[in-house]
């Protein structure tokens, strides 16, 4: 409940990260350190709550310039991850989206819905033309999001990311505004927007059966 | 529609002010200059859209430090005013709320509802204990808000504000968290929260008759 | 003796706080921690001389913008407290004065005289119109200053300050320039200005007798 | 001649851009505005020498943080263009190179040699692992550099750049350190490093004949 | 009259420069432009009051770091010039003093007394060990101050200053703390400290006769 | 080898100091602490590599403003000292040069050649008119450089430097552009520029014999 909250279905609340969220975010990173450390660089470098505060301050500073936006995700009232655009280039009409999710909030459509909400903001409110998502070649969980949301695979950048396993190639996925405008009318996307989280589980279960 | 929007009823949308709102806000100030100039100091000093941009940058900078929050109000899809807290003191658990509204959005409960939403944020999300509203002694439209929302009159500070008519005394109204917790259960407040804007007009009309 | 010193009588010297005063101020805070901690928030948070240096740097930064002024008080050649204006609003012609004094310099008229000197600066040099002093309802020592100097009680702000005893109401006292101009001609104020500190003790003794 | 100069052959001098170069760079941009405006965004926004000064200040600020480097190219004693890395990411061991050249310095191997020198700095001095060059799909002159220097084509990002003709797709070329180490021993690269500029013309003429 | 004023005799008041002095200082520079322009570089570059404001902001910023101090001189209630230390090096115990005076305040001992007061501050309050004054070889009015105050001539730096007549050599004068401690007991210095400004004229007249 | 390297003879390479040089510089300071501590103040205050990083950041910040330049000296592939100008005043056409050298690189002409290269940059690229070198009266090794390079002794500033032995007087040496233009044509200077480092040893040996 609040002036900066965005509610999706009955269980997901998105909020612009703010300094008073630091403790909650920090605890979530600590709890998920093993889960996150392969692909999320700060999972290992976040040692104290002041590290998280410093990140939030930087995030809001960049937000105040219109260059980044970082959204916290609360699932069933607990902080569960983040989705954000860490470079918004209004001159080129371009942004790159990144995200991470706590282990126990996975498999429920939380991130797909959160990314859809962020895309609404970027295409409608910020009038962008192109959104990019980058995933390590071995990170199939991350790749599932752009695949599910109709992004096109546009390239493979060699040795472009540093994982805990060493340098790895990166897939670049892109979605243009005109593609988003078509896709968002489809039943499939409407589903993510309107249905509640419980129904998601059914869908996922069904999709695994088939 | 968007990740930073907060919708009240069918006609009011609140958004954290952002740099890409500058043109819309500036045009509203220009159109309402005569209406605003007596009590809103920047109504006369805002000469170009860059003045508004500078205000927004400052507002978000302070927001990033947790010290201020400035919310734009859209009524029937057009920008119609602002509500904000221009000093949030977490050490003392205190904030002061200010607001201004375009002339053609007045008399519809827009500001009462916007202030209620901001108070939710300040008491719940920011855990404050006391909210203050200050109004020039001659500004009865502004005083109507704290009166309607059960604030107590706590003092009269002499020659504390500069209006276009010269120095004027200021009433200080205060509301404590414990008072807000009681008030928000009342039918009267529930009304503002749940009903749509059309019903407001009926209420106002009825209240004027009685 | 010095270009930034302001001498009152034979025993009081006022100086704009500067970075090389840090050690002296810090030692005074340490020695008076118990005396100050109820009403002076930084008495408990000042743990090292670098905390005091940081305060001084901030104080001078705000002074350089014309927004604050912080004056150190030396009594009988030892640092004994501070008097300052921690918000100077030239647009509104307004400032709020605050002060604290070491225990062994109390009861000698030191603070009354220091506040008078600061008021001269604010009304004459800075051309302000209104000065405000705020005191916790239980802090009678602090209230004695505005009462003695003809301020008017203008309001009681509920739960506005955090003392070591918890939240407390605050009295707001105000003095307008026109009132100051009348008062400063009175014998009573002249006395504070011209006489030396020893005579103060006699006056206080006499005033307690009557 | 100078402590920050890097000489290639007899005719090319590279220098870290500095504030006293502003006038010379500005005049070159003005003279080449038509030549540059399709692909170089600042060719149109650089209106006064202060715009160039602002760019240089920003460039050196980023250089001081180790995040960018911008090198001016002098050909036959006149300023003729720039080569730089506008994001150096030491955590990922990655940099992206960009460049532009005045019309009358084209076709002489100036940029190929300048890029080679910058690559030496990035791979050897800064110990990077991957260098990227991005070119608009229609910009064949720009693509000639990574092709000539053995970069691999890694992707095509759709609508990723804004040219004076509108949005355009972008080719991403990448070169890894291990590839650079092999390539730099080849006769072909040695040629660029050791021979003087006149010999370049012969080589180019011969290569066009074959 | 005020908390930051330092009064010498009946006619001289010294104040730390502050932002609200800008207009007064600017008018004095304008009026004395011809008188100052040969040796005071900003006499020609100060075109608008905002130039003076910018200087004051810089001066107070450096003061807040303990690295500079700039004092305004009021003579017979009108702003008449400045005296300051524009590099205070506490590690080396060293400062350099500079000054300029309006034409109609010259020949009255105003600057000699002002410099003496600043030296008190630098040697006593700031605990420095060495003070330096530099004067263009042709500027005899400026040289009169260090000569009168027992400074030693320590060197002649060739082409070290830019006057409106071109490059000129500079005399360096130095005074050590131990020399200042002896000198300040002499009758001559006592005279500057204690007597009023009218007496100065007599002394000067007498000294010219002999 | 690199875009920011300047090579002298076969054994000396000069580079603008950059943040990735910190470790190498720090180790050299540690190793030469005893050798340096008498005259180089930071030899004792540099305790950790972060101290060196902070110096480099400051150095590059000042360089980006055109106010300082700090050059690292590599001798036989190892970092061996620094030469720099720590105040470049373009308004006056003036700079002051300072330097320090590791013990095992002394006596080989390394510093004389490095200073000559820096002077080329300052007189030619930066168009300065006067260069100054200051040396403690007891520091004959340091004085050898300006003597060898035809600087004039212009003054002796008393107690101007703090050595590990206490306060000490300082010699000021100056060289004007017109003097530099004559000197650089002489055989003696040509020698430093063109010959390799081995020849230097012969010259020095010969000069000691005579």
From TrEMBL, chains A, B, C, D, E, F:
InterPro entries: Acyl_CoA_acyltransferase (IPR016181), GNAT_dom (IPR000182), Ribosomal_N-acetyltransferase (IPR051908). PANTHER family: RIBOSOMAL N-ACETYLTRANSFERASE YDAF-RELATED, RIBOSOMAL-PROTEIN-SERINE ACETYLTRANSFERASE. This is Ribosomal-protein-serine acetyltransferase. GO terms for molecular function: protein N-terminal-serine acetyltransferase activity; protein-N-terminal-alanine acetyltransferase activity. Coiled coil: none annotated. The keyword Transferase applies. SUPFAM superfamilies: Acyl-CoA N-acyltransferases (Nat). GO terms for cellular component: cytoplasm. The keyword Transferase applies. It holds the Pfam family Acetyltransf_3. Residues 23-178 form the N-acetyltransferase domain. It comes from Thermoflavimicrobium dichotomicum. It comes from the Bacteria. Keywords: Transferase.
């Amino acid at each position: 409940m609040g002036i900066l909250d965005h509610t999706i279905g009955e269980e997901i609340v998105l909020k612009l990260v703010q300094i008073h969220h630091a403790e909650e975010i920090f605890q979530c990173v600590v709890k998920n350190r093993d889960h996150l450390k392969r692909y999320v660089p700060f999972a290992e470098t976040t040692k104290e709550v002041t590290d998280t505060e410093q990140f939030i301050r930087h995030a809001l500073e960049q937000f105040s310039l219109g260059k980044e936006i970082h959204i916290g995700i609360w699932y069933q009232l607990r902080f569960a991850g983040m989705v954000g655009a860490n470079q918004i280039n209004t001159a080129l009409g371009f942004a790159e989206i990144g995200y991470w999710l706590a282990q126990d909030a996975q498999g429920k459509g939380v991130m797909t819905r959160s990314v859809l909400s962020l895309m609404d903001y970027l295409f409608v409110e910020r009038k962008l033309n192109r959104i990019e998502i980058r995933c390590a070649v071995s990170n199939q969980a991350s790749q599932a999001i752009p695949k599910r949301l109709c992004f096109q695979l546009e390239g493979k950048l060699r040795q472009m990311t540093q994982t805990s396993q060493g340098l790895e190639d990166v897939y670049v996925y892109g979605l243009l505004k005109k593609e988003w405008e078509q896709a968002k009318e489809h039943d499939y996307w409407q589903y993510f927007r309107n249905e509640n989280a419980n129904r998601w589980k059914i869908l996922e279960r069904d999709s695994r059966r088939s």
